[in-house]
Amino acid sequence: MKQFSILLLSLFIFSCSSDNDEPIKEVDIKVNFSQNWDGTTIEKSDLSSTEFSYIIGTDIKTETTLKIDKLRYLISKITLTDGAGKATTFDGYQLVDLSNSESSLFNPSVKISEGNYNLSMTFGFNEDDNIDGNYADLNTASWGVPMMLGGGYHFMQMDGKYKDTKNVENPYNFHTIRAYNTETKKAEDTSFSVDLGSINVKNNATIEIKMNVAQWFKNPNDWDLNKKNISLMMDYEAQKTMSENGKKGVFSLGTITQ
Question: H or E stretch including 10?
């Protein structure tokens, strides 16, 4: 009789719990990309006008001053992974162009359930997606890489001018692509995945992903624009160095509005 009573009580409690459960909401996610220079926001109005600087070296420190004329970069495989390890990777990619504010917002059509997720993304295209000539809109945007440099697509184009050791302005073209050795024809995937950390989604949300542009030049490798400034796409070692810097603190999670 005692066991029967316990069973009835358990059924009662379970039933009440089920009745109180609220339905899980399906919500929209948007991703907004922003850029900064060590915390100072970079806007379209800064292009070709605002001077930025960075310091490299330990015993002998060198300060470099530069302006940014153009900044475009490609993000793909934006992914939310829940606590059970189920990953939702949004279709498509985003070509962010600092001169075009509309390009900063990635707006996938797929809804997700409210809850806790880990957010990740890929800078550029990985090898499976980096298919030469495969994306009409990127072809139109002159985003392709010549076959003599391995084909596929750019990951980033940052152009501008820096002041050399004589305080004279010279051009730089900080372009990142898949590393390609023009002598050995060897290619190496220099795209990389970025783990942006955990987020808690309760409602429709806009998630900011920040790029600290300054970090491309100083962590973990000091980048001296007096030595390497243009023709970097055909520089196999330079591409690997840029990729190493990109992995270290360039991208981070910003504000979540919901």
Answer: helix 2-20
